[in-house]
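Hi P.,

Sorry for the delay on this. The queue was packed all week, but I finally got your sequence through. Input first:
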Amino acid sequence: MTQLEQARAEIITDQMRQVAQKEAVDAEIIRREVAAGRMVIPANVIHLKNSLKPIGIGRAITTKINANIGASPLDSDDAYELRKLNTAIKYGADTVMDLSTGGDVDRCRCNLIAHSPVPLGTVPLYEMIINKTIEKLTYDDILATCQKQAEQGVDFFTVHAGLLKEHLPLTKTRIAGIISRGGSLLAQWMLYHNKQNPFYEIFDDLCDIVHDYDVAFSLGDGLRPGCLADATDKAQIAELHTLGELTRRAWDKGCQVIVEGPGHVPFDQIEYNMKLQKDICQGAPFYVLGPLVTDIAPGYDHITSAIGATAAAYHGAAFLCYVTPREHLGLPSDDDVRQGVIAHKIAAHAADVALGLPGARKWDDELSKARAELDWQKHLGLAIDPETARKMHDEKKLSSTDHCTMCGKDWCSVRINKEIRKSLI
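Then the structure:
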């Protein structure tokens, strides 16, 4: 039985208890949310036997973030991808996706699973077409690759089953067209063979595979907008309705489901997008790439993405896919991973504070108290990135700890306020 099936049977699993303890909520709340499909615990039964520490993804608990890593045919290797995995986890990624399209992908994936205490996801399509063209993809390739990756311990699969052949004409007027890698490849396959999306055609068979290992579906948005001008268009919404259909079909098979959402959305359209997905997909956890709220910032897209991510999480998204500074420029480096994770941890936490989740503000208040007392050790230690905070503070060595280089001793409002407080006692 999958986590979903056990929750429906009113069974509280060990994984549900672990999530409840981590989130400081009652285990019955976790069970109820999983049973309703509003929460997912991506925990492949194979990975659970190794190093996996289960997490929950759903709006009733803290917002989670994912970090994408993976080698390309032009860059990186197994050792560097493992280093990126460790960096992502160190700075707070809740899950990691291996998007490798080059090198020995099986070896890289198995190495990452063996060393990852967080759920690991993949896009199985990428492996299916290494060393061959997309036109040669067969139904058997799809099922065999998904079976193999499930047996290896992958916790969640992105499958672009919602992009249908009849949706393709809707992309004609787009500026950026189909920017999803999986979506563009399957569009090419459908046009070549003049057939329906093969992932849609054999979706029930895919459900049987993921059910056996309790792999969670992450229903990919192959028609997500790649620029502001394409956001919330007919193509995106048409695919979303198909994702809603697939969500219900997967639930009927006892499979856990996450639904992926748009990448580039003007700030004023974010709330509408989040509420539309909740309605169409019946509350299944929404997993969004950003969204990026402007297209003008190559090199800084972790910032444009984090701005949109806070709004998305506040209005209903449960799962944020990070964006790195190198998003539109190349394969992210180890430091890009760090910056992307931190930016989106800030976004997720800001949304949790605004939503009033129990305990979310405690971290802020503890740091504020330390700052007000000029307790630098505690202040820096509570920072989301203590290493960077400490490095910046210590660049200029001062003889006293009752001020910093921003104002100096005589102008330091924090030091002055401490004296005012004493005089008011």
